[in-house]
Amino acid sequence: MTNHRLVIVGSGPAGYTAAIYAARANLEPVVIAGSVTAGGELMNTTDVENFPGFPEGVQGPELMESMRQQAERFGATVVYDDVATIDFRPGAHGLVTAMGAQYTAESLILATGSAYRELGLPNEKKLSGHGISWCATCDGFFFKGQEIAVIGGGDSALEEATFLSRFASKVTVVHRRQELRASQAMQDRAKADPKIEFLFDSAVDEIHGEDSLTGLTIRNTVTGERSQLPVTGMFVAIGSDPRTSLFADVLTLREDGYLAVEGRSSRTSFEGVFAAGDVIDPVYRQAITSAGSGCSAALDAEHYLADRDQAAAEAPLTAVAGA
């Protein structure tokens, strides 16, 4: 059992940025980064061209490695393990990892992120970053003049399609049903775009390509008929799921399942527990917004700990005065 002022659960831009700020505040944070998921979703991303400070772009894994090194430079400790359980206790939160390590922490920052939903088809993971993406804002620029597909029928899918039409020569929205789930305003905007076409009652059956995506096999969900869709890009927009299983039964969640925080702060419903990144953000989901969120969480945790220290320092004086 080791005792710490701050433990950060999760890594990625939110966790590592929180670690940088907390370490610079001499809190000596421990980052339990994950055994497989360390670095977050950017570890599966190739070129990141919209993160400030990199005019030529940067590889996702390289960016995460730089953030980790920066956090460690200031005194953070990064542990490649997974948190198995958390016992929430004000001022003495207990954590046990999959490898059996035990920690107590005066404060916690939860940066567990979220996971994009996948189609679950062969080749999907293999071609991730090689024609298959889950983020149009991140990767749309790389598909200039190409024909691409967007999978989904909600607001996110149509927003992605509308954004991608700026770059692609043609965008085909593939949706399992006859009716879209998106808001009417979003539907009207997408249907008015001359570059966007729709395949209704359709699902992706196969993904083709060795080194990069070359096309899709589409199945009509009503007739079962199969056809080929020759695209070099596919954006999957069927939703994401916040990683909240560790604390869903203790901390307050929003109606959409994301972790709730107070106003613009990072404070959760439990004393001394803060949150950052995609686990609290179903809207923006960008590396830079996650990093900013991690900064906020570290500052909130620092202020919380400073208030605890002040209260502890004043307690003996109060006791003497009362005597």
From TrEMBL:
Keyword match Nucleotidyltransferase: no
Key word Membrane present in the record?
Answer: no
Q: How is the cofactor bound?
A: Binds 1 FAD per subunit.
Domain FAD/NAD(P)-binding, residue spans: 5-293
- Look up the record and name the cofactor or cofactors this protein needs: FAD
Q: Which family does it belong to?
A: Belongs to the class-II pyridine nucleotide-disulfide oxidoreductase family.
Put simply, this protein is called: Thioredoxin reductase
Q: Which organism is it from?
A: Brevibacterium salitolerans
